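Please check this protein record:
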Amino acid sequence: MPDETRRLHFSNLELYRALLEHSIRRGRRLPSGRILKVSMHEAPKPGFAVVIDDDLRHENAVVRFDLPSVAAALITYCRSRKVPLPRRARKSLTVVDRRICLELTITHDLERADPPPKPTDTPGGEAGLDAAAEVAQ
């Protein structure tokens, strides 16, 4: 079976809502406003720098998030909005066209897959196909 990759692109508003909900659950305050820019950073710890136009202070605030926090925020955001996410998919974060993306990859391991049904001894030798069709349904 072929491998499968799906990429979910989040608008800055969706990202803000996901991070806000996650921050509230963690007891962290996030500035009120809108996201102006998202960029990846490597030091001191891999993650994202989010520039927020702070409505209350009328200035830009840079808030840093580590990768697990952003991933958890986006996954929880998707689940609360009934966006299907396969549990066994490998999940990674990227920035594409200045938008954060959650990439889901399912690798089908042929060596671990169930072996195909064995044909039975019937005239025409097609009974195995019927059994395979029943398994597929």
